[in-house]
Amino acid sequence: MFSIYKQPPEVIKKCLDHPGLRCYVHQHYNYSLYEAFKLYIFPGPLGFAIRLAAMLIIYSFHFLLQKLIFLNYKDWDHPAPHWRRRASQITMRYCCRVCMWCGGFYWIKRIDHSKERPKSKNWEDQPRFNYLEDKYPLVGNHCTFMDVLTICMCMGAPSLMGHSGVKKEYTARFLLKAFRCLVVYRNKQEAPEGYSVSKALIDRVEEAFDPKEEQNPPYAPLVFPEGTTSNGLYITRFHKGVFVPGRPVRPFTLKYPGKHFSNHYDTIPVMRLIYGMLTQFWNPFEMHIYDLYIPDEDERSNPDLYAANVGKFVAEKLDVPYIDGSGYIYAKLVGDILIDNKVSIDQIDSEVAKLDLIQERGKQDRKDNGIELKEQQDKLKTLV
Question: CA of 108: how far to CAs of 94, 121, 160, 280, in Å?
């Protein structure tokens, strides 16, 4: 038995025993001799190099096609003409499928539940999913950086939320601009003056429902409300950003059910994850797309409640627990403990206690806000 973590078992156990930290400990941090054989012998380095080269070639080819589609186009602040968008989405979808095939994703399970509705339910008033026309925000669980390829393959090219770091790479910078992606700045000092990703997201959602854009709706915004990736055994707290406008959303679920290696980007070095993924004989993947989640009156007036209910819906579909007391701050601490070795075993309890206090205050604030909103709603009903 081998391990990707160098820390002693008691340190790993401390992380696994805490409900907020265990969400980010890699599923297969211990791996067998069979997995070691794949890593170092076959497919091994040669298989990794071939697959990586093939994926990079497809990515470059796709980039050139997108440059051709958007040739001489400059009005990036508004949705592109319909023919350009249709061409770019179809190109994105099929290039992503070829790229995934090169990475070992040979068999993919995709189920669109909006097209396979039970006859006993009268849902015909709800629009079915159409990747070329859908304007509703896409929300679901976040597993790994491969989610971008898998979602674009299954759902066309949505308007992503990208980390500011990817803007340094020329091809990624162009694609972010072409699909009107929203940029998330972890370091607020890097953000342009007056820029707020929350406000930009709310504006994008409202833009999709603007009657003026009915004939040319913008790309559906893709949001991972968890804010970070976890190990796939839990769904962590959904943040309220995309739910603030109170508009319907299109939930989806992603699953990478590998038996020997987990493709989840949790607490694992990025190169180790890429290498492990590309040295598997094959990588299973499944995606489910659901009917619109239409908020009720309470959810529209309380975005935190709306976010939590959608998070629980996604968790129920994946058959995993919904953990309200977890998030990015816990993910960072697990990385500091297990990968970067910045926190010693004697410091773990005190660091966790600090985060628990912050988390508890946040939960209490959300609860108080919910009570206040409910009281205001009741007063309004009484007046009416």
Answer: 14, 28, 22, 15
Residues pairing with 3 in the sheet: 30
Distance, CA of 90 to CA of 156 (rounded, Å): 7
Neighbours of 310 (CB within 10 A): 21
With b for 16 or more beta-carbon neighbours within 10 A and e for fewer, the 125-135 pattern comes to: eebbbebeebb
Instruction: Provide the token pair at 67.
Output: 């440059």
62: which 2 tokens? 């796709």
Q: Quick one: tokens of 187?
A: 């370091």
Q: Phi first, then psi: what are they for 261, rounded to 5°?
A: -145, 140
Give dist(CA 237, CA 224) in Å, integer. Answer: 11
SS3 call for 276: helix
pTM above 0.90, yes or no: yes
Q: What is the tens place of the pLDDT at every residue in 187-199?
A: 777 888 888 888 9
Q: Could you identify the residue written with the tokens 């941090």? A: 29
* Separation CA 5–CA 8 (nearest Å): 8
Which residues make Cβ contacts (< 8 Å) with residue 111, sequence separation at least 6? Answer: 286, 287, 288, 289
Give the DSSP H/E element, type plus range, for residue 147: helix 147-155
Per the structure block, which two tokens stand in for 351?
Answer: 């660091």
Residues, the chain, total? Answer: 384
What values do phi and psi take at 27, rounded to 5?
A: -55, -45
In 3-state terms the chain splits into helix, strand, coil percentages (rounded to 5) of 50, 10, 40
SS (H, E, C) 291-337: CCECCCHHHHHCHHHHHHHHHHHHHHHHCCCEECCCCHHHHHHHHHH
- The Cα 118–Cα 23 span in angstroms is 34
Band of pLDDT at residue 213, cut at 50, 70 and 90? confident
Nearest to 86 by CA among 176, 190, 219, 254: 219
Residue holding tokens 């976040």? 142
H helices present in 74-196, as ranges: 82-102, 147-155, 170-178
Tokens representing 87 are 């061409």
Check pLDDT > 80 for residue 117: no
Cα separation, 356 vs 100, in Å, equals: 39
